[in-house]
Sequence to fold (440 residues):
Amino acid sequence: MRYIANTGADRRAMLAAIGLSSLEELFHDIPQEVKDRFQPLELTVRSEMEVAQVLKELVTLNSCQQSSISFLGGGVYDHYIPSVVSHITSRSEFYTAYTPYQPELSQGTLTTMFEFQTLVCELTGMEVANASIYDGASALAEGVLMAKRIVGNGRVAAAQSLFPHYRRVLDTYCWAAGIKVIEIPYTNAGTCDLTALPQDLSSLVIQTPNAFGVIEELKGVKERLKDALLIVVTNPISLGILAPPGQFRADIVIGEGQPLGIPASFGGPFLGLFATRERYLRQMPGRLTAQTVDAEGKIGYTMAIQTREQHIRRERATSNICTNSQLCALAATVYLASLGADGLHELATLNLEKAHYLAQRITALPGYRLAFEAPFFNEFAVRVPTDPQAIRARLKEERILLDDPRFLSALGAPNTLRFAVTEKRTKDELDRLVELLEAM
Fold:
């Protein structure tokens, strides 16, 4: 649908309806120092064709539009997306459909939601999964709130090696909910230091692979927690070769579904994965689709659980999240179905092998060494001999993109760069990166 601007009469009528006379009154709560930062756009009148051409020129200024080589990681990865994903998700019955509020009329959407939940359970080794949450960070925060409801304790331990943006979202949720977050440091190997684990907790949050790419050892962790819940944050692609967290008695498994057929898209949309044990089903946030039979005995699907404020009493609601990332969940469902178990295993193996090849090449250079010796998956941290910002800037000139080293500095890892390697990176690209580093 093309944009149709409001007329002056439209604006005056809407303002009058809320007792205002001008747009200035509408925005009077915005601090003046913020308003002072506004700059007039100084737009000139142009035809639609001219505007389209200007926008096309602006797009080409983005370095990612000019065949940059991405080694960006930290939760968002540059994976190949099979064409079947966009072919299915672009169909009008999926692309334009609103998340169902009358589920009996939305059997196609409910079917894909059920399939998505099933695939998440298979990936994570858990018993139930919801139909998705907004993103991995909010899924983690919802998991911590869920643990508090179950255990009745306002203390959560969180590994220092979480992605920083996950930690910021977690801190915001916990501040509002009166939950104390206790940070657990990492060892010299880059793994969570469980010897520093306090008692009397509602949950422990541990990420594997973590912000350094390091794979955490989950065996025996649950046994240390007594009544506290084990919340594991994971990369779904890594589960193609790593044992699922459910195998280690995890209570809640969280993940970011972006690697499953969703482009990075300059920061969204994302897809929060959330799975748990069946005994905690009534405390799980979000919505859940179930399979049933109709009056004629035919298989059908229904929205079985929606424990949110709009459906049950507010004091019993598990979350104020009102929907799920259905189109992204559909993309993940198509992606996983197209790969199959063997394809996911092969994909994860490619990520692992290519990352280790690059790590070996880089650490053979003088002054470069792995920041941590523990096993890693498809990204790794490297201590560098010179200013990491300067290295990053120089590589960017060659259209090679790296994460900002300040992310790792904030985690206590200065002079460190992180490299994420996916199946898309060719041997020539990896060797070129090493050659550029060697020439600096």
Summary: Residues 8-38 form one domain.
